[in-house]
């Protein structure tokens, strides 16, 4: 597996394609722990070193799952482990109801994640979202204290504005900004945010790089989603939007067919072609998809192929917002 660097040439080396672990515990239908462990084992075999989780995924359950798998590994140093804090759940409903990036909460959240993961340090620690009522200088100042204490090695932010990134980076270097980025979701990144990241030497970690699985081309209809699949609540998978979006997937598939690769591999290769400072973290809970996604690191597209894939999903052609309204309101602060 080829490597890329977090935060520029001197930063931590990570696999060019990472692995999002959320779906191993929550969000995309029933969990299958045995298959998820096989997926993690397959990732290790293929040199996928960059694993992504968060304390919000299953209210800590995903961190515990990844941590249990890590304890069976011989070398902690073989994994670059990223996790996040800041989203808190309502105990009654189990749903995220608060964003907490207060400086007093930062060390509490970190210590809890370290316990669940069973590790002495976190390689990359993100603020999952930002509470605009809390100055980002205070949040990052508290995160910087974790670096000084040896509990965290690198700092990250997720779904922030360019202005917030600049302010935070002036307090302590930010190695990565995690943001949704794919053929389906480009406008939030391409423009001022990407330009700011490049000016400051910050890596873009692209989550949902396959449009929450839609760009993989396996989904034929909304009816295939189980009742407990979160995508049923997301606008792009709604009854009124999904067929229009699947038409775009079919356009991507036509280009991929000409390349003689699966559409997921083509979509991930397109992201990798946007720059060495882009690291996609496709999520899956199945070993065979880990292998398919990892293979994108070995697919080099020509400029013409990159342009054709972009043209397959014209700007503003995707139907529906990327999140429900309540979640959208937490983005871009």
From TrEMBL:
<protein>
    <submittedName>
        <fullName>Aldo/keto reductase</fullName>
    </submittedName>
</protein>
<dbReference type="GO" id="GO:0005737">
    <property type="term" value="C:cytoplasm"/>
</dbReference>
<feature type="domain" description="NADP-dependent oxidoreductase">
    <location>
        <begin position="17"/>
        <end position="312"/>
    </location>
</feature>
<keyword id="KW-0560">Oxidoreductase</keyword>
<dbReference type="GO" id="GO:0016491">
    <property type="term" value="F:oxidoreductase activity"/>
</dbReference>
<dbReference type="InterPro" id="IPR050791">
    <property type="entry name" value="Aldo-Keto_reductase"/>
</dbReference>
<dbReference type="InterPro" id="IPR036812">
    <property type="entry name" value="NAD(P)_OxRdtase_dom_sf"/>
</dbReference>
<dbReference type="InterPro" id="IPR023210">
    <property type="entry name" value="NADP_OxRdtase_dom"/>
</dbReference>
<dbReference type="Pfam" id="PF00248">
    <property type="entry name" value="Aldo_ket_red"/>
</dbReference>
